[in-house]
Sequence to fold (177 residues):
Amino acid sequence: MFENSSEEMVYHKLLLLYILKKSDMALTNSQITQVVLDTEMINYFSLQTLLSELVETGLLTTYKESDKEFYTLTSNGLDSLEYFFSRIPECVLEKVGAYIDENKSNLLEDTQIKAGFVKQSDIEYIVNLRVIENQSNLIDLNLNVSSEKQANMICNNWKQNASDLYGEILSLLIENR
Fold:
């Protein structure tokens, strides 16, 4: 399929840009890894190198939130993908597109429930809990707790039960007492 390894590298970079475009959201390294390994498109070590190169060349950018690093397309990345889109075989587009469509809720779930905390002092931690839908906050709750153990427990419980807890909080706030 490829005449040389640089042509294959360009193809794989385009594929990564397409994955981010098709998913229509920022993805963590582990989410991108899941997509490429499950679709058997790129091996793990090549993937890590390619992601670094895409960031270095300004086609992707990263940001950190809740101790996770997210990758997003830059405008240059989007322009490059649109310009060279025809180099990605249709069968690959279909395979990756189908995978993302089938697994988007799982990918979305990972990025839409957020929990983290910051140490303010030896006896004060600020816990931030969020649920995001369509890039809008449904809830953004900050709690002041007295220990790192409490902060961790709250974050873990939120990650496991956010939809139930959000519903309960909403019900409690709406109820007439």
Q: What stands out?
A: The chain has a mean pLDDT of 84. Residues 78 and 115 are 30 Å apart (CA to CA). Residues 6-110 form a domain with the Arc Repressor Mutant, subunit A fold (CATH 1.10.10.10). The beta strands are 27-28, 60-65, 68-73, 113-121, 124-133, 136-145.
